[in-house]
Design a protein that fits this description.
alpha+beta; Thiol Ester Dehydrase, Chain A; 11-stranded mixed beta sheet; 7 helices; about 25% helix; globular
């Protein structure tokens, strides 16, 4: 794999429109054999505080496990904006995310960030691929993020695979658990999280822009829903853990979401669902 060392973080202001517009001409193909690396990264305390407030974490010098996803996001978009990336950003659905950290990251850590894409595979509804990001301290990988995307269209048609999203009609009939908390998700959370994360996908910002992509209203970012759920466990998790989630139906804004958590043999299980209709938004485990 070709490793390209970057001297500065890519500009999302420039890359995001390019990734959205140039991708409209893409029709598939192989994934690029490229990894981007950015060394000497230090966390801005003000940015961390803004992220913590938007996602519900307490203020402190320990990074939430989901926070480094924001640091690697510009590298991910640079990969997806490149001419050799086979799929458009618009229409590539984030269906799962798994984060593993071997120890807590802190404000004083100097990080090296890396990102590449791998594991292109068939899916009943199209193709899936993994965006893999890492954070290193002193040359050691201490944090790994695997974001799985689904590109719909031309799928295998097989229903035997276990690596897939569940049919939404089945999900809607499922009886949700009793919530341990009910959260009001405000109409502007997509814009607020977009301001902090740099992820200003139109589907998250306003009702009118979301309608252009087939949504009745703006929807919350999947990584915001994961972070909000993780914040509910703050103070109860070990420094080394894996947080694995499957994104189900989107959270339309505004809405009320029910959250439920259950102890498991090796950690926790948790769910986020519509407080009024029970439709599932997210299912996850912490181990």
């Amino acid at each position: 794999m070709a490793i390209t060392q970057l001297s500065a973080a890519p500009s999302l202001t420039t890359l995001y429109p390019k990734a959205v517009l140039s991708g409209l001409r893409r029709k598939g193909g192989d994934l690029p054999d490229t990894e981007y690396s950015l060394a000497g990264v230090r966390v801005d305390p003000a940015h961390l505080a803004a992220y913590n407030r938007v996602c519900g974490f307490r203020l402190g010098d320990e990074l939430p496990a989901t926070y480094p996803h924001l640091l690697t996001f510009p590298l991910q978009i640079k990969l997806m904006a490149a001419g050799d990336f086979p799929f458009p950003l618009a229409g590539s659905v984030h269906v799962a995310n798994r984060i593993t950290q071997t120890r807590p990251l802190r404000l004083g850590d100097e990080l090296e960030l890396r990102a590449h894409v791998a594991n292109l595979r068939e899916h009943p509804r199209g193709k899936q691929f993994d965006m893999i990001s890492q954070a290193l301290v002193g040359g050691d990988v201490v944090w790994t993020d695997v974001s799985t995307y689904l590109r719909r269209g031309g799928g295998s048609g097989s229903s035997s695979t276990t690596d897939s999203t569940t049919d939404s009609t089945t999900e809607q009939r499922r009886e949700p658990p009793a919530p341990t908390a009910v959260w009001s998700v405000p109409e502007d959370i997509g814009r607020r999280y977009g301001e902090v994360s740099g992820d200003r996908n139109p589907i998250h910002l306003h009702k009118l822009t979301a309608k252009m992509f087939g949504y009745p209203r703006a929807i919350a970012h999947g990584m915001w829903t994961k972070a909000r759920c993780l914040a509910a466990f703050e103070g109860r998790l070990p420094g080394a853990c894996t947080v694995d989630v499957r994104f189900k139906l989107p959270v339309l804004l505004p809405s009320k979401a029910g959250f439920a958590a259950f102890p498991a043999d090796d950690g926790w299980r948790f769910e986020l669902f519509g407080a009024r209709n029970g439709k599932p938004h997210l299912e996850g485990t912490i181990s």
